[in-house]
Amino acid sequence: MPHNNLICILLQFFSLKHLSTCEVCFVSDADPQLIVEDFPSGVCKLCHSVLGYIEKHLPELKNFKLKKGFYKPQIDCIIEDKLYLGNFHGARNRDLLDKHGITHVVVAGHHMKEFDKEKYTYKLLDYADSAEQNIVSTFQEVIDFIDNGEKVLVHCFAGVSRSASLVIAYIMKNMKLSYNQAYAYVKERRDKIRPNNGFVKQLQIYEQNLKDQKVIQE
């Protein structure tokens, strides 16, 4: 199996299974008793148990994650002074949060935690980045949270699939756009978005629901 394929599989496996502060998977809490030279911020027990297997691929793994922006804090403006889309690291970068004046945060990820509950108002959604994950049933509550908030950041791990789908749903209803139009609008402002196939199907169902409600014109 080519190294890049192996790395992609490992990253997908890790990101689907957990999520928080482990430097390998960024999912589970790092165990302070596990010291690994290549990962000074710590690793969780599960990742520590498989590090021997992936050790020879660590350089490729690190380079892949750097190229894909796994470590870079990112927050992109979708609607000026209102709606922002970003990744896990952006949602934990106080300077970046303050730069955009973020007041409310939607966290769309499995086992993800609040960064600062005292300063920001949070909505937690226990989403897996899986085609089988039901997200359409939560669209309206997310839309209400965004409408009632001030400057709202929506994030998952990479800011590519889960959080992007929620932002697209908001744009569809708020701007009365079709899925394709809303997708293009968001992608123009955050180029790396790519909802998984299951989320796309749910967004298309949501589009039809909005048409049935006369929110979007046929």
From TrEMBL:
Its EC number is 3.1.3.48. It comes from the Eukaryota. One of its GO terms (molecular function) is protein tyrosine phosphatase activity. Residues 1-22 form the signal peptide. Residues 74-212 form the Tyrosine-protein phosphatase domain. Keywords: Hydrolase, Protein phosphatase, Signal. Transmembrane segments: none annotated. Residues 133-190 form the Tyrosine specific protein phosphatases domain. It is an enzyme of class 3 (hydrolase). The keyword Hydrolase applies. The keyword Hydrolase applies. Coiled coil: none annotated. GO terms for cellular component: cytoplasm. Belongs to the protein-tyrosine phosphatase family. Non-receptor class dual specificity subfamily. This is protein-tyrosine-phosphatase. It comes from Pseudocohnilembus persalinus (Ciliate).
